[in-house]
Write the structure tokens for this entry.
Amino acid sequence: MEQVYISTDRLSSQWCIDLVSDDGSGGLVMFIGNVRNQTKGKTVKYLDFEAYEPMAIKEMQKIADTAKDRWKLHKMVIHHRVGKVPIGEEAVIIACSSPHRKASFEACEYAIDTLKETVPIWKKEFFEDGEVWVSAHP
């Protein structure tokens, strides 16, 4: 079962673990993208994410489907938060399970890299002295 999810609520890593847990899986891997307190030497106050949700959900589902097929995953979830996200909280969680760990690691890396390239979710960083939209690629 793949599950993609966009929410203004705080994300739950435990919920993601529960969704991908499978008795036939020897590997469960999770990537958590947290909001950090600085970038390029500037103090970040918080981030704000916007999404074109219908297309974002469709693209996230494509990523999950491709990963599941390519790495023979049992399950994958991709959850992304939108709106204001404070320092230290999760902006994105990707988790997957597979018979062996290597497949889960590779699938998780593929999912976050592809999400940043193809999914219409935009990030704005807020600083003490202003804000800036951030490109998908650092």
